Amino acid sequence: MPQKENNSQGEEILDEYTRPWWQNSKIWLGVTVLVIAAVFAVVYKKTVLNTAITPAELKAAIVLFDISSQWKVTASVDDEDFKGIILAPEVSFRVRNVSKRNLSYVFLLGVFRFMDTGKVIGEGYRMTMRRPLPPGGESERITLNAGFGYRATSAAAFEKYKQDWRNTFCEVFAKSHNSGLTMLKTFYISRKIAGQDVEVTIK
């Protein structure tokens, strides 16, 4: 019996090599592995290699236009020692793709600072262009808000004491895929309050 069993196993092993190729499971397994590897390579090329961009390329590809800035009420405060609002700076703009390739998944970061000290007021960020922006394409309006700023009892109080405001600016950075953060532009923030026709020009 053991001898017959060994012979049977030997015939099964040989059968793998003598049967027609289309009936050979090992060949189909190899073909399957090759197909999966090819699909992975194509996906990797399209999603990683074809979208890779350097900081210099990203900066050269983006033009910010239709730019505006203002201060906007971002929160109400109802503490024991203070009741009022928080007015924070914000910038808004649109993006034009001036490169010859699509732009996608562009992370934008705005860092808001006081001009006299450079101290950070706050930061705002957005992930944009989840749908690729083609060459020559223009984005919808993008707004970045500091979230923090001045506190006062009302927006009218800010207008009344606007001469005490400190000049501020916003540094806008961008990142796409593995580019790393790169500086795009610096905006000076107007002293316009959203909803009010009051603005002091920064000289």
Summarize the model shown.
The chain is an alpha+beta fold and 203 residues long. Helices cover 27% and strands 36% of the residues. The protein has two domains: 48 residues; 134 residues, Immunoglobulin-like.
Description:
- 27% of the residues lie in helices and 36% in strands.
- The protein is built from four helices and eight strands, in the order H-H-H-E-E-E-E-E-E-H-E-E.
- The protein is of the alpha+beta class and 203 residues long.
- The mean pLDDT is 79.
- Strand 1 and strand 2 (83-97) form a beta hairpin.
- It folds into two domains: 2-49; 55-188, Immunoglobulin-like (Sandwich).
- The relative contact order is 0.17.
- The chain is elongated.
- Describe the oligomeric state of these chains in a short phrase: single chain
Total number of helices? 4
Mean pLDDT figure: 79
As for the CATH topology of the largest domain, it is: Immunoglobulin-like
Give the % helix.
Answer: 25-40%
Strand-pairing-aware structural class: alpha+beta
Major sheet: 4 strands, antiparallel
Descriptive terms for the model:
single chain, 203 residues, alpha+beta, 4-stranded antiparallel sheet, 27% helix, 36% strand, elongated
How is the topology of this model organized?
Elements: H1 2-18, H2 25-49, H3 55-61, E1 62-78, E2 83-97, E3 106-114, E4 120-128, E5 142-145, E6 150-152, H4 155-160, E7 168-176, E8 182-188
Antiparallel strand pairs: 1-2, 2-5, 2-6, 3-4, 3-7, 7-8
